[in-house]
Amino acid sequence: MITETLSNEHAHCDNLFAQAESDVANGQWEKAARGVADFVKAMGQHFSAEEQILFPAFEQRTGQTAGPTQVMRFEHQQMRQLFAQMQQGLAQQDSSEYLGISETLLMLMRQHNAKEEQILYPMSDRVLGNEASAILAQMEQSKQGV
Fold it and tell me: What CATH fold (topology level) applies to the domain 2-144?
């Protein structure tokens, strides 16, 4: 349940990212600016929901605070830094700067998503069991307020 739902969120964010990257490559700066804003907002909501709801629930259930959730938080921070750099390249309408940073981000996102989708989310589904649907509902509700 967690695996499927959050993997679908990854796919949605990936699509937003790819469209924005295409818009930058084609010099469609206004469209790219809207697309990047949508992408960064979606990623921010996803990260916040994980960090504030899923990860604490996982840590409480497993007693692991220095394990996979710590790595995911660190990678979220790395990605947030890359978002800021991408937005600078976008503001300067510097496609080579933007595309270079977006390539780095893409590699990090692929590795990060694979770890979550293949390891953390399935572990969360197992350890949280019947609580999974309530946690997903809380995560969704938290995004409405962001």
Answer: Four Helix Bundle (Hemerythrin (Met), subunit A) (1.20.120)
